[in-house]
């Protein structure tokens, strides 16, 4: 067996309205968009995070999957500052930053379709 190194990760989300989802990632969450929307895909990037949004109008909404709608845990260097930025921009923020027993300061953010992400800052 050959060992191989994983070099990076990205997320792929099925979204019913590509324009709306792309605008949320750009205008509210501060991502940069790439790829022509006419392709049915939009790439959203911020720092080392890459999220590929795929137009899927007939897919089940993530909001219908309950706790299974979490798709990412994003590590940041200042959770409180990012939370404040997202709040200023009108993000859906059901959980404010909170220090957790496992040494992380975390908050959650949700897309209009119900995809959920946790954001965490290592307190060590």
TrEMBL record:
Q: Where is the VOC domain?
A: 7-122
- What is the name listed in the Swiss-Prot or TrEMBL entry for this protein? VOC domain-containing protein
């Amino acid at each position: 067996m050959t060992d191989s190194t994983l070099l990076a990760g990205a997320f792929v989300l099925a979204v019913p309205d590509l324009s709306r989802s792309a605008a949320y990632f750009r205008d509210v969450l501060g991502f940069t968009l790439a790829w022509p929307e006419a392709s049915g895909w939009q790439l959203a990037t911020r720092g080392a995070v890459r999220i590929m949004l795929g137009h899927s109008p007939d897919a089940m909404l993530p909001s219908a999957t309950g706790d299974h709608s979490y798709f990412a845990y994003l590590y940041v260097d200042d959770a409180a500052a990012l939370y404040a930025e997202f709040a200023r921009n009108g993000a859906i923020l059901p959980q404010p930053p909170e220090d957790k027993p496992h040494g992380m300061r975390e908050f959650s953010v949700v897309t209009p379709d119900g995809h959920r992400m946790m954001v965490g800052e290592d307190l060590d």
